[in-house]
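Re: weekly structure request thread

Next one in the queue (238 aa):
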Amino acid sequence: GDAIPRLSADQQPLTAQAGYGIANANSTVNGLYSEMLKPAIKLRTLIDLIIRTNGFYWESNFFASSLFGSIYMTLASETERVVSTVENTCQVDLDLTNPNYTITNLYHIVPFDTVNYDDGNNFSLASDTYITPQGGTYTLEARANISIDWAIGAAIGDTAVVELRIISNVAVASVQVTATKTAAVTTFVSLVTQGSALFGQSDAVQVVQRVIDDQASPKVDDYTLSFARFTVRQAPGG
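Done, posted below.
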């Protein structure tokens, strides 16, 4: 029989769409996970068995070619498949309330309150958590608008760092923006962070934020989260 080929991201049976999953060169969390593996058989072997079992034989340059001999057919069911189009999309907003925070330096989960769309109802407003419905590569983006109220003793030129992160059991994305005190008592900051990561089934994903202040000499009195948005989509080939 044919020799068993070395597993590779660019040949059957593990061929991945360029830029996604194990073929995403820009991701640092790619790997080969159990849910990515499906039973498979060489198509030529299957056709040969069908023909010979019924008392026939075949002669074909195409069937005998290396190309046809390299094609595998998965034996998975219709629910066990690699995503071929963008799906499992979700978008939630924080726009009905404006939570205010007096504690700085600690991460706070963004309390989303509006579901714009959610294929499969995978986001829980009760826990502010997205649960991945299946393993694969997901692209995520978080946005937030934060207004900082400076302390009475804060001077023009004082700074505080505002951070927005997408977190899970794998690193996803984060951004930090430095807010600088001006003559105004309030400074407005907008943040955007996005990234792609390979998740397993039922992984929990959240968005958190914080303002990093000088604990020895606080410059921030409080801050308000005036808007936030979290968008998820599963990439094709993931």
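Residues 109 and 208 are 4 Å apart (CA to CA). The mean pLDDT is 83.
Next request, please.
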